[in-house]
Design brief:
The structure is a homotetramer. With about 140 residues, chain A is of the alpha+beta class. Helices cover about 15% and strands about 35% of the residues of chain A. Chain A has a 5-stranded antiparallel sheet with strand order 1-3-4-5-2. Chain A is globular and about 45 Å long. Chains A and B meet through helix 1 and strand 2 of A and helix 1 and strand 2 of B.
């Protein structure tokens, strides 16, 4: 896999399904966040440790296209790709693909930034690690 | 209020806040969904009853701009405006405004459709009630 | 209402229902917690403010009897009664009653304690306010 | 492992932590439910399939002792043990143990029953599979 990509395999938990019998639309944001945090953790960036130092990564825009539904018993992969969007913004392009399928059932673009202890926007330099060409 | 608008007042529940001490980004989708369903219910459309008849309203696209954060103790209003986007798609333009403020801290455009028992897209005619000029 | 009692009226939100079409068993703990925190807030005790000072109220035991199920569209009342159980433990006896019914569909006993900045158990003296005979 | 036991390894997801920085008390019920459903699935019992046939497994009592807290980054094991409590009731004794520790940080006893299409309590005979001495 390329350096700026990450994959996480998960399975649907029954409590994540709503009365329509499918995973509720808000739960996909939980999946996407968890995948981003695992990706960061793998690169040495710990979301909770940053927060306790007063450095808060935050989502500023989310665009999500829902093209299918996950159901009880489904396994799936969350694919995440990191891009630096500007000096102060980063972008995760994420897809959710059901196991055994090739077409994404959800596509998302999540734009984020970070705020430091002084409340000023800034990007932790470690985020650049997600772009490194070699590990 | 105009016919195709709805307001719902809510307050943050502490369990909705995450380790950063603010409402988690996914929870806003819960708020937005709840506001839409209350709006529909007020017009006589019951999401759960429709689901049990095999008619499933579903979100197909969500665009959310996060411009601020709700915290423990905050009260806020979810404003929703309904538009018919095309023969098979509807659109809710939604905003979240903290009590006592005028500027929205979140803006969303939620596009939806519905699928009938046969699995075919169609819009329940009752949705037109959200557009009626007089009640 | 007696001094050491509190009532909170809520309604079911559709995303709280699971694939059985009823409120998921874990969600009732959210309702119970929210009612306790509102009760504390009404007495001048702010759960989030305490946490930011390093004073963490925490549940150490929960006993819950589920005798019925809430569904989409239901309104209900959470009744909470506070008791001091020992020098270091407090107890909330809580019930959930559907609107228009008299019998509780859920009964819970939630035992808690608090830990201070030094990690030692202690009860914030303000909790005694929940027992005061006169306000 | 004995026949009537099951283990599931999970890790904390950051959105499951609340403003105290630890996993919220209600989320443990999600973990316990997910472990029970995986256990049932492994024995050939599908919670969602049963629900769609009108057979609803339900929790009627939960007793939970919280002795410690999970935090961001923690991995843990949910251990579940099945017992038939009476003709119409089953019991799961469950424990949560943080990776690398031996003492449970949470112990729970979850009593359940099932209701058939006619709304009458009954236990699906397949549950006996959780007690079989040989597979």
């Amino acid at each position: 896999m390329e350096q700026n990509q990450h994959q996480l395999e998960l399975c649907v938990r029954d409590y994540e399904c709503d009365l329509q019998g499918v995973v509720n639309n808000a739960v996909y944001l939980n999946y996407l966040e968890h995948a981003r945090h695992e990706y960061l953790r793998q690169k040495g960036l710990d979301f909770a440790a940053l927060a306790s130092e007063g450095i808060n990564l935050m989502v500023i825009r989310a665009e999500i296209d829902y093209r299918g539904s996950l159901r009880s018993g489904d396994s799936f992969i969350v694919q995440s790709r990191y891009e630096q969007k500007s000096r102060l913004k980063f972008l995760f392009k994420q897809e959710i693909v059901r196991e055994g399928e090739s077409k994404a059932l959800l596509r998302a673009e999540i734009t984020g930034t970070a705020v430091n202890k002084a409340g000023k926007p800034f990007l932790p330099p470690e985020l650049a690690l997600l772009l490194d060409e070699k590990e």
